[in-house]
Specification:
The complex is a heterodimer of chains A (138) and B (179). Chain A has 138 residues and is of the alpha+beta class. Chain A is built from three helices and five strands. Chain B has helices at residues 16-34, 37-63, 71-86, 128-140; strands at 91-93, 101-106, 143-151, 160-169. Classes of the chains: A alpha+beta (138), B alpha+beta (179). Chain B: May play a role in vesicular transport from endoplasmic reticulum to Golgi.
Chain lengths: 138, 179
C-alpha cells in the first residue's frame, strides 16, 4: 500500500505530492526529496554507457526502517516517487511497475489538458481521483 | 496517450489526438489574448460560423443528402454530419411541442478529451465552435437557426447537449455578412 506518491518536475520542483491520511507529511516529503539524489545518480551513471536503452523504472531507490522508496523517471526528466511501508512485503516488483505505468499515463492525461502549464503544480481533479484509485486498488 | 488507432492509410487523415490538442491550444491562446470569457465564447462561435459556411459544401458533396422537407430531416442531416466529421453518434431529442427546437446530445465530446476547466473560466463554453458550425452550415442552405449549449460534460453534466432552434427560412440567397 503506497504511503506517499509524488511527481517531481524537471528542475526538481515538486509538482504534486499526495500523502496517505494519518502519516507524517514532513518526513515523507523529506524522504521523497532525498530520493531525488539517488535518481540523479542512477540517471548519470547509466547514460555513460552509450547504446544502452535506459529503463524508465529505477526500482528501489533506498529503504529505511519504516519505508521503502521507489523511483521512476520519464524521458522528459519528470520523476515519480512512490513510498511504501517497509513492513509491506506483499507488494511485488511487478505491482510497483504497474503503479508507475498507471501514474505515467495519468500524468500524460494531465499534460494534454490545454489549461495545464507544464512545470506548474498539478491541481487536476481527474489526477486526484486517479491517484486515489491507484493507491486504493493495490 | 498510447491508443491503438485504426488509421486508414489516407494521407489526408489526421490523428484525433492532434486535433484535440490543436483545438485545446487554440482555446487556451484565445483566453490569454482576450482574457474575457464572454469574448472568447463569441470568437469561438464566430470561428465556428465561418467553418460551418464552408463545411456545408463538403458535406453536401460527400454525403449527398436529399432535400430537407422539415426540421426533423434537418436534424437527421446534422446527426449525419457529426458522425462524418467528428466520429461521434449523437442522439436527437427533446423536441419542443411546436417542433421548432431540438437537442443534439453527445455522450462523448472528442474535442474536449483530457480537458479540465480551471476555476477562473467556468463560464467558458469550450466547444462553442460547434454551435457556430451548426449556425453557419444552416445559414448556407437558407435556414436561420440559433444553436447554443445547454449542458456540458466539462461543467459536470452527464452529457454534452446543444440546443438548436429554428428561427426562419431565409428568402434572400445571400447570407448576411459578418460585421
Amino acid at each position: 500500500m503506497a504511503v506517499c506518491v509524488s511527481v517531481i518536475g524537471k528542475e526538481n520542483s515538486p509538482l504534486y505530492v499526495w500523502v496517505g491520511s494519518g502519516r507524517e507529511e514532513l518526513h515523507l516529503h523529506y524522504l521523497a526529496h532525498t530520493g531525488l539524489d539517488v535518481i540523479q545518480e542512477k540517471i548519470t551513471s547509466v547514460t555513460k554507457t552509450p547504446g544502452d536503452t535506459r529503463d524508465l523504472y529505477l526500482g528501489l531507490l533506498y529503504a529505511t526502517e519504516e519505508y521503502k522508496v521507489f523511483g521512476y523517471t520519464t524521458n522528459t526528466r519528470i520523476k515519480f516517487v512512490i513510498i511504501t511501508d517497509a513492513a509491506n512485503t506483499t507488494l511485488r516488483d511487478n505491482e510497483i511497475r504497474m503503479m508507475f505505468r498507471r501514474l505515467h499515463s495519468l500524468y500524460t492525461n494531465v499534460v494534454c489538458n490545454p489549461f495545464y502549464i507544464p512545470g506548474h503544480q498539478i491541481s487536476s481533479r481527474e489526477f486526484d481521483k486517479g491517484v486515489a484509485a491507484l493507491v486504493a486498488g493495490n | 496517450m498510447s491508443r491503438q488507432s485504426m488509421r486508414a492509410n489516407d494521407p489526408k487523415k489526421v490523428s484525433g489526438e492532434l486535433f484535440t490538442l490543436t483545438y485545446g491550444s487554440l482555446v487556451a491562446q484565445l483566453l490569454k489574448d482576450y482574457e474575457n470569457v464572454d469574448d472568447v465564447n463569441r470568437q469561438l462561435e464566430r470561428m465556428g460560423y465561418n467553418i460551418g459556411m464552408r463545411l456545408i459544401e463538403d458535406f453536401l458533396a460527400r454525403a449527398n443528402p436529399g432535400r430537407c422537407y422539415d426540421l426533423r430531416d434537418t436534424a437527421d442531416k446534422i446527426q449525419q454530419a457529426f458522425k462524418l466529421y467528428l466520429g461521434v453518434s449523437p442522439s436527437i431529442g427533446s423536441w419542443s411541442p411546436g417542433g421548432d427546437e431540438f437537442s443534439v446530445v453527445m455522450e462523448t465530446n472528442p474535442m474536449a478529451e483530457f480537458v479540465e476547466l480551471p476555476e477562473h473560466c467556468l463560464g467558458l463554453r469550450y466547444s462553442n465552435i460547434l454551435s457556430g458550425v451548426i449556425r453557419g452550415a444552416c445559414e448556407m442552405v437558407q435556414l436561420e437557426v440559433m444553436a447554443w449549449f445547454i449542458a456540458d460534460q466539462l461543467k459536470g453534466d452527464n452529457m454534452t447537449e446543444i440546443r438548436v432552434k429554428f428561427v426562419k427560412r431565409l428568402e434572400d440567397a445571400i447570407p448576411a455578412g459578418e460585421d
